[in-house]
Amino acid sequence: MLKGKEIVLGVTGGIAVYKAVELLRLLVKAGADVHVVMTQSATEFVTPLTFQTLSKNPVHMELFNLISEERIGHISLAERADLFIVAPATANFIGKIACGLADDLLTTTVMATRAPVLIAPAMNVNMYHNPIYRENEERLKNHGYLFVPPVSGMLACGYEGEGKLQAPEAIFEEAVAALTVKSLAGERILVTAGPTLEEIDPVRYVSNHSSGKMGYALARQARLRGAEVTLVTGPTALAPPCGVNVVRVRSATEMRDAVFAALDETDIVIKAAAVADYRPKVRAGSKMKKIQESLTIELEKNPDILAELGAAKGGRLLVGFAAETQDLVRNATTKLNAKNLDLIVANDVSLEGAGFNVDTNIVKLLYRDGRVEELPMMGKEELAGVILERMELLRGKGTK
Ligand code: PMT
Asked: Is residue 133 domain-shared with residue 48, that is, in the same domain?
C-alpha cells in the first residue's frame, strides 16, 4: 500500500514514544521506507536502536551529522520525504514550528520540507486546552499542517482527559489518507455492506454469510480518495473505517429506510450488502417453543432496495453487486438492466477466493454499454480501488 513511499517519522519526547514503535512497524509492513528522526528527549524513553532495527535505516538525531550521513549525501531528508509524520508531538515541538523556530534536526527538517506534515500531538490535558497551544495548532492548520487529534483517557501524568496519543492504527490510516490522491473529492458516496438479519423470534433469524469486508473496503478506499462517505451496514464483526459516517441497521427494511434517508445527500451509491431477499411473514413476540416435529416458516419478500434506487436514481451513479453461483454474466446482466444500474460487480461466489467472508474476490465488471471487464483474483481493498477508479471514469474524471 505504501510501496515506494519515503516517510520521515519524527519522534519527540513523551511517554507515548512506545506507540511510535508500533506506528513504524505498521508503516514498514505497508512497504514504506521510513527514516526516523528523534529529539534528544525522545531517546530517554525508547532507544534509537529499536527504531533503527525496525526501520532498517539509521536513526537521525544530530543536526550537524545530517550532511555527512553517507546514504543521504547532499539530498536532505526534508527533500526526499513523500510524507512527514511527527508522533508523538509535544506542545514544545508544535510551539516551535508554529513560531518558525528550527533549533534541532527535527524542527529544521520539518521547516525545510515541502511534503505534507502529519502531526499527532500527545500532552497533558491542561496543556492541550491551553489557549497558547490552541493558537499554535490553529496557526499550523491554517498553513496546511495535518493533525491527528489526541483521544481522551487516563494520561501518564495522572490526569484524565484529552491528550492521549491516537492509536498507531489511526495515525497510520491518516498517513495513508495524506498520501492518497484525492480523486473523489467533492463526491458523496453511500456504500452498503454486510448481511441483513430477518428475525424469526427474539433469538433466531434468517441471514447469510456476508462479513462486510467488501463493503467496508469500498467505504475505506472512497474516504481515502477524499469522498464524503456514508456506510450503511448490517451487523458485522469489523471495525468501521476511520472518517466514515456509519449507520448501523439490522433488517432489509431498516437498510432501505437508512439508504433513502441519506439519498438526497448522495452522488454515488454502491450496494455491496447481501440483503436477505425474504423475511419471516410473522415475527414471534417470544421465543418459539420446540413442540412440533417439524416447522414451516412462511417467508415474504423484502423490498428490493437496489431496484427502488434504480427507479429513483436521477443523476446519481448506481453500482450493484451480483452474487451468483451459475450463469454469472447472464444473471448479472439481467440485474444490471432490471435495476437501472451504471455498473454491476458480478462475483461467482462458488469460486475459491471469491465472494463471502474471504479477503479476496474474483469479479467481472459489467457496464451499461455491454462491456464486460474481467478482473483477476485480488484483495478486496485493491478491488475496491479498481471499482472506484471505474466510477471516476464513468464520472468523466479519471484516466485509464
Ligand atoms: O461481505 P463479504 O463477506 O465481503 O462478501 C462480499 C459479497 C459476496 C456480499 C459481495 O461481493 C456481494 O456480492 N454483494 C451482493 C450480494 C447480493 O445480495 O447479491 P444479489 O445478487 O442477491 O443482489 C443483487 C444486488 O441487489 C446487490 O447489490 C444487493 O445489495 C441488491 N439487493 C438485493 C436484494 C434486495 N432485497 N435488495 C437489494 O438492494
From this structure: yes
Q: How far is the CA of 249 from the centre of ligand 1 (A)?
A: 15
The atom number, within ligand 1, closest to the CA of 211 reads 3
User: Measured from the CA of 308, which atom of ligand 1 is nearest?
Assistant: 39
Q: Does residue 183 form part of some domain?
A: no
309 and 382 fall within a common domain? yes
For 114-146, the pLDDT digits (tens) are 999 999 999 999 999 999 999 999 999 999 999
- The three grid cell numbers given for residue 63, joined into one nine-digit string: 543536526
Instruction: Convert the pLDDT of each residue in 254-310 to its tens digit.
Output: 999 999 999 999 999 999 999 999 999 999 999 999 989 999 999 999 999 999 999
Ligand 1 centroid to Cα of residue 184, in Å, is: 24
How many domains does one find in the chain? 2
| pLDDT tens readout for residues 340-364 | 999 999 999 999 999 999 999 999 9
List pLDDT tens digits, range 11-36. Answer: 999 999 999 999 999 999 999 999 99
Count how many residues are written for the chain: 400
Q: Which of 157, 312, 338, 372 is catalytic?
A: 157
Q: 111 and 166 in one domain? A: yes
Give the residue from 249, 243, 207 showing the smallest Cα distance to 228. Answer: 243
Range of the domain at 355: 188-394
* Cis upstream peptide for 88 (omega within 30°): yes
∠ CA 27-30-33, nearest 5°, is 60
Tell me the CA–centroid distance for residue 8 and ligand 1, in Å. 42
Task: Tell me the CATH number at 313.
Answer: 3.40.50.10300
State the DSSP string of 76-114: -HHHH-SEEEEEEE-HHHHHHHHTT---SHHHHHHHH--
pTM beyond 0.85: the answer is yes
CA-closest residue to ligand 1 atom 17: 274
CA distance 89 to 98: 13
* 170 falls within a domain: yes
Is 99 an annotated catalytic residue? no
Residue nearest atom 18 in ligand 1 by C-alpha distance: 274
